[in-house]
Amino acid sequence: MKQPPPYPPLPTPQPPPSYTHLLLEPSQDTITTMLNHKCFAKKPRLCELVASYFTTSAEASDTCVVLLQSLAQARLDCRLLLHALHLPAEQSIPVLDALELFIHLPNPFDTIRDRLSAIHHHQATVHNILRRARRKLARRARLLAAGKQVAGWCAMLASGALAALALALAVHCFVGVVAGPLLLSGVPLLPKKKSRAKDMGLSGQLDTATKGAYILNADFDTVERLVARLIDEIEHEKGLIAFCLDRREERWALIEVVKQLRKSEWGFRQQAEELMEHLCLCLLTINRARMLVFREISAHLASHRG
Fold first, then answer.
1. How many domains in the chain?
2. Residue 7 placed within a domain
3. How far apart are CA 301 and CA 104, in angstroms?
4. How many other CB atoms are found less than 10 A from the CB of residue 75?
5. How much is the mean pLDDT over the chain?
6. Positive or negative torsion for Cα 164, 169, 174, 179
7. What range defines the domain where residue 259 resides?
8. Is the peptide bond before 94 cis (omega within 30 degrees of 0)?
9. How much is the average pLDDT of 61-77?
10. Which residues contact 100 (CB under 8 A, 6 or more apart)?
11. Cα(273)–Cα(288) distance, rounded to whole angstroms?
12. Which of 25, 51, 225, 237 keeps 20 to 30 A from 103, CA to CA?
């Protein structure tokens, strides 16, 4: 009696790749050292705002790495499903065995789903705090500019008044010599140049950090949407498989489910590829934004030392 051909072996599971090479730049240790500078001791609120931005962006980077690992695991699990879908239709037993094995695998994104939502909410909060602080500093800068303009007008009026007084009291020039300094003493002082430079430095730091937080929040809007879509796709496939396994004795159910799963295979791969590309782009954006804020602060500290 002729023996049936052996069943093709199931693919051997492999551990997901490590993404430890995607280092955070600049590191949190570097940021901590920078924020311990004596310059920040006099500005605790600014230190708190900048620290919150760097902490949130570091958490976002860690979350992206975990998501990449979860995505790699989902792709490995998908190999098991693809193996079943490409078996000959006559080999229903190994197909059902592979489908049953796949449906009992945990969803790789279950452990990160809640964390992703919490991180995204925290990012939105930090961005709003930074934005309010930047607006407050901008209002202060406008008030200083208005004060400077008013002071200029007062100086012009005072100069005109002195000229008229000097003309009227020409015969009493020695009175003009004495009265001049007294009148000038009433002119409002202009904002100190050092104070204006300091505010410009603070504004630059807050502006860069706020822009970085905005971009990060927008990126995670997309990440959360892509992850949710991929989770729904995995759950949809498992729902089809459960339908098939409940009717394992009915051949039509297996044929129909395999047909549907083959159609969704391309969509899953496209979604997984899109998520991976966006996560890698998000990691690059995080590092680029962190470096911009770091350079802004470093330049301010260098000028402070000067």
1. 1
2. no
3. 56
4. 17
5. 77
6. negative
7. 28-138+213-305
8. no
9. 93
10. 241, 245
11. 23
12. 225
